[in-house]
Write a sequence for this structure.
């Protein structure tokens, strides 16, 4: 067998070739147009290839060439602010080459070969280098310093190191054994990049979303899943996380979803400023867009492309968050390919290796000590789109077995425009305990208790609601009516958060704490007043209660809250006086 | 002329298997010549050196192993020209109106390539349909795909036609060009659409593709693609704003299922193919606005939910792809309310970019959110009232209960020819909200209450 074979059979994105010497995951060029594909099965002298581009018109007998390389991404300066398809082809370059519509047979480098970067070395001649070490830096965007790393498998002594402006494929460092390093390295996407050690996550990812930070936090380096039926808020939540999370780098994968949503991100992110740095969000973001109508094999690859880029920035010592919207579309891509291969189907037609693939993916999250010695993390947040919104299906179930945080979206809440429509009774976070000390130190020693009290109240509400359903709310004892009211305040004033409101879209921890504390303290005072004989009708009519409803929208929150707290004191003392 | 093969080895359902061919391209168009001199068309689904699998659009009825098979060497294309406007074509693109063949300016591939996401412009131009439940609560914008989820016997056709008649971008009086594709609907339904198009003169700026209930099911797999190709051509080559109405998506999906079964594929949920999401996406995603091009493609398709079940794979997968849905309610229809739109499960995801101070009015979002919340609460209370009676409700709850009734009666209900502008829709919203205690309007900023709430507005004036 040799390096050139021919097509034997074509069935959609799956092509069978003969006469070519291949290894699993080799990238091959298929047909006259050299369509890019990847070997995913070998039997006798036939290899099965998934093709990343449309195969209409391709014929048996056309030639196939093996590149001998695995599907890889290019890592180096220029990743930030990029938008790629599932196999790291920059969409602006594709637009230049093919026009407004995606045709095929076009290759494009992940990193520009023209652009020059200012390289500042941090090592000198004679230094001993190991894989993963930092040899210098490039200011990639205004706030992100790109740290140039020795590829993991390489080590040696520096015999020459340069300084100045270079293109990504120009040599900047030579080792004693003659090995030459550039600012760019390639890495096969299906293989996790090595780290020195995995660490236990202990810091929360601050998202500015009250229900997430307040009730169900995810740790930096943790994993979370957000399953929900269509239209329940997966994408909006993921985009909110991409906008407001306090990580240094964001990788956003639109996997098999809508083109307009990606266009939206592309138009919005350069306009929105990172609350911490004041720089446009786009400067810390890498987008991967393989929409539902783009080739399904490239959709399968997109998730790996994304996580490999995330690992690369983690290895520089950054906190990275990665959103995958939606992991279900990724799994369906696996199913489509698998069924073309006529593999033995598992549950609901998904391939038997589904669970393994999902856990391998989430396993690439984590807080680590990188080879460079720096600490970095990847937080992975996966959207799940269960058919019919039914969480008992295989993707949701397999995902929940792996991830530590579950944000359960609820169609009922979405229908009444309670956003984010995350169900507070079904969701959970397994990080709350581990993060406790952090809140004590950085928010308030009261925070954990406050949150627990609020959760308890919401739990109580749901029990009382069952009774109300039978007898009506007026039949409840007055203190329970009050409990219901306070729970409603927590839901509407605290949990509800409008992603489209200029102020409310992002809520810092301090504001979250004050808001929740004020609501809970209104509740305490109200119960005291009731015990002291104040009529419930009067308590319910207090103006301070209505004012608390809207204080979250105030630009000058602290001032506004101060005024309300004051009038709350007055109102309650008047009640007592009566 | 390409070579004719007489090597059909097997015929199964809509498929034929052809042996001993020269290399045949995947997805290639195929002509099959019957002994009686007629020709059918098909498409290559699977091709190898040994055997080629072809799906036959007009069905395999009348075929036998003596038929001649010709591979055309190209994929299916639609001849396009501006003269498509005003024409009625079959579900396979042949003229049905007795008119001449289309003299093509171009021949376009019907599968259509995906719009590069980087070339898209996020849709944001408000389309006023004149229907309050849509404009006020689930706003449609130019370039959006927003289907109607309906059920058998419900007035989705009336609503689709009302929208086709009334839809205008605000501030422009220019109507949309309409591309209408029928897939497996009855002749009577098709006539209903055609006569409305004729009555209103809409036909002149419409292209109609008809695959009716008694036309072959496989043909349904190409009908919507022909329609979308025509729409893209008019939008991107002739700067037109095109409204595409595909009806009924459910019939399309049934054809897809039938094909899958014929190919003996491993079926997905409820027997529909595992790739149905991707397949539907290849239709729905052909809506949008492209940077630097003047026209746009907006999709307003009709989908009837089998058994009124929104979790059925057809509406479910559609909802995961489209930018919202307008849900028609049997309950409202029974109450005699037209258009019976249930706003609660309805959604327009692009609403936020299409409304607000510069596009509709500054208070639009707040009014809509508040109406949603209040209506949802009122509807819940109806359930409670059925158990405990109205008297067990608090004063506050009674107000919400009444709100739900008024909302259906005055906001949802409107005439089939009633074209409400957005101001009218919003002021109906305010009138209803004014019946609730003002402190309950927690979704509305104070400044809007001061400015638009009837109680304050009156004072100001
Ligand atoms: N936090 C929020 N604030 C305001 N509106 C929201 C919020 N979350 C969701 N929405 C509303 O819900 C709509 C649907 O949300 P989204 O697009 O995120 O759903 P999804 O779960 O991703 O659906 P699909 O699975 O179909 O992609 C949005 O268009 C928006 O109108
Ligand atoms: Mg989404």
């Amino acid at each position: 067998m040799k390096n050139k074979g021919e097509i034997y059979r074509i069935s959609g994105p799956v092509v069978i070739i003969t006469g070519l010497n291949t290894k699993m995951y080799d990238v091959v060029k298929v047909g006259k147009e050299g369509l890019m594909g990847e070997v995913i099965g070998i039997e006798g002298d036939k290899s099965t290839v998934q093709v990343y581009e449309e195969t209409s018109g391709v014929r048996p007998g056309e030639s196939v060439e093996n590149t001998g390389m695995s599907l890889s991404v290019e890592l180096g300066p220029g990743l930030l602010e990029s938008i790629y398809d599932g196999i790291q082809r920059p969409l602006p370059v594709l637009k230049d080459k093919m026009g407004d519509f995606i045709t095929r047979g076009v290759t494009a480098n992940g990193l520009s070969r023209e652009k020059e970067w200012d390289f500042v070395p941090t090592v000198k001649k004679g230094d001993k280098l190991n894989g993963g070490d930092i040899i210098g830096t490039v200011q990639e965007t205004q706030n992100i310093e790109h740290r140039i790393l020795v590829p993991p498998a390489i080590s040696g002594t520096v015999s020459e190191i340069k300084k100045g402006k270079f293109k990504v494929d120009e040599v900047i460092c030579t080792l004693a054994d003659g090995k030459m390093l550039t600012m760019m390295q390639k890495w096969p996407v299906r293989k996790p990049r090595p780290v020195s050690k995995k660490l236990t996550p202990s810091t929360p990812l601050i998202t500015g979303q009250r229900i997430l930070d307040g009730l169900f936090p995810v740790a930096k380096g943790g994993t979370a899943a957000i399953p929900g039926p269509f239209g329940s808020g997966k994408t909006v939540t993921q985009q909110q996380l991409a906008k407001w999370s306090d990580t240094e780098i964001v990788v956003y994968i639109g996997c098999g979803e809508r083109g307009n949503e990606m266009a939206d991100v592309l138009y919005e992110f350069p306009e929105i400023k990172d609350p911490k740095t004041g720089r446009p969000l786009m400067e810390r973001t890498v987008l991967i867009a393989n929409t539902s109508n783009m080739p399904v094999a490239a959709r399968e690859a997109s998730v790996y492309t994304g996580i490999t880029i995330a690992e690369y920035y983690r290895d520089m010592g950054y906190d990275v968050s990665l959103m995958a919207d939606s992991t279900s579309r990724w799994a369906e891509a696996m199913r489509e390919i698998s069924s073309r291969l006529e593999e033995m189907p598992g549950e609901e037609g998904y391939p038997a290796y589904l669970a393994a693939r999902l856990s391998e993916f989430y396993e690439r999250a984590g807080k680590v000590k990188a080879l460079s010695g720096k600490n970095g993390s990847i937080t992975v947040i996966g959207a799940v789109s269960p058919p019919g919104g039914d969480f008992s299906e295989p993707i949701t179930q397999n995902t929940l077995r792996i991830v530590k945080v579950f944000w359960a979206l609820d169609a009922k809440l979405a229908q009444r425009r309670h956003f984010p429509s995350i169900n507070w009774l079904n969701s959970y976070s397994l990080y709350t305990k581990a993060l406790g000390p952090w809140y004590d130190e950085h928010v308030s020693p009261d925070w954990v208790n406050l949150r627990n009290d609020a959760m308890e109240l919401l739990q109580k509400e749901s029990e009382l609601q069952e009774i109300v359903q039978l007898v009506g709310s007026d039949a409840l004892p007055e203190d329970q009516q009050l409990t219901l009211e306070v729970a409603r305040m927590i839901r509407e004033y605290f949990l509800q958060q409008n992603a489209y409101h200029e102020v409310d879209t992002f809520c810092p921890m301090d504001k979250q704490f004050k808001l929740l504390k004020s609501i809970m303290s209104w509740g305490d005072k109200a119960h005291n007043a009731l015990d002291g004989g104040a009529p419930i009708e009067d308590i319910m009519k207090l103006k301070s209660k209505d004012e608390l409803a809207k204080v979250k929208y105030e630009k000058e929150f602290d001032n506004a809250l101060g005024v309300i707290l004051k009038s709350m004191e007055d109102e309650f003392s008047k009640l007592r006086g009566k | 002329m390409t070579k004719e093969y007489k090597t059909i080895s097997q015929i199964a359902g809509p498929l034929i298997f052809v042996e001993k061919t020269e290399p045949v391209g995947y997805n290639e168009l195929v002509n099959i010549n019957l002994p009686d001199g007629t020709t059918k068309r098909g498409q290559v689904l699977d091709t190898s050196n040994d055997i080629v699998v072809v799906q036959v659009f007009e069905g395999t009825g009348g075929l036998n192993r003596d038929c001649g098979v010709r591979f055309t060497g190209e994929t299916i294309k639609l001849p396009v020209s501006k003269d498509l406007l005003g024409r009625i074509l079959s579900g396979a693109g042949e003229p049905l109106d007795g008119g001449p063949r289309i003299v093509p300016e171009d021949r376009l591939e019907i599968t259509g390539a995906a719009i590069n996401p980087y070339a898209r412009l996020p849709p944001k131009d408000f389309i006023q349909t004149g229907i309050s439940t849509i404009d006020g609560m689930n706003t449609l914008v130019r370039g959006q795909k927003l289907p109607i989820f309906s059920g058998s016997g419900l007035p989705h056709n009336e609503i689709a036609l009302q929208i086709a008649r009334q839809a205008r971008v605000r501030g422009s009086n220019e109507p949309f060009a309409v591309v209408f594709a029928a897939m497996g609907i009855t002749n009577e339904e098709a006539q209903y659409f055609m006569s409305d198009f004729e009555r209103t003169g809409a036909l002149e700026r419409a292209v109609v593709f008809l695959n009716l209930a008694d036309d072959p099911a496989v043909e349904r797999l190409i009908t919507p693609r022909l329609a979308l190709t025509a729409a893209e051509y008019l939008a991107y080559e002739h700067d037109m704003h095109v409204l595409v109405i595909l009806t009924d998506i459910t019939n399309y999906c049934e054809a897809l299922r039938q094909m899958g079964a014929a190919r003996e594929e491993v079926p997905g949920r409820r027997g529909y193919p595992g790739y149905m999401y991707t397949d539907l996406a290849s239709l729905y995603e052909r809506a949008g606005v492209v940077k630097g091009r003047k026209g746009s493609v907006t999709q307003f398709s009709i989908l009837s939910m089998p058994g009124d079940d929104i979790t059925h794979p057809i509406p479910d997968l559609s909802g995961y792809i489209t930018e919202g849905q307008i849900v028609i309610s049997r309950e409202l229809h029974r109450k005699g309310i037209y258009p019976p739109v249930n706003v609660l499960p309805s959604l327009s995801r692009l609403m936020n970019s299409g409304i607000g101070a510069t596009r509709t009015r500054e208070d639009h979002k707040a009014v809509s959110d508040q109406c949603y919340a209040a209506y949802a609460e009122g509807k819940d209370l109806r359930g409670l009232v059925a158990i405990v009676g109205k008297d067990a409700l608090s004063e506050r709850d009674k107000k919400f209960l009444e709100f739900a009734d008024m909302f259906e009666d005055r906001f949802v209900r409107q005439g089939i020819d009633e074209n409400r502008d957005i101001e009218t829709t919003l002021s109906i919203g305010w009138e209803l909200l004014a019946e609730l205690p003002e402190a309950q309007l927690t979704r509305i900023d104070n400044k809007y209450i001061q400015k638009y709430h009837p109680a304050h507005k009156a004072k100001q004036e």
Summary: The CA atoms of residues 111 and 225 of chain B lie 6 Å apart. Chain B has a mean pLDDT of 92.
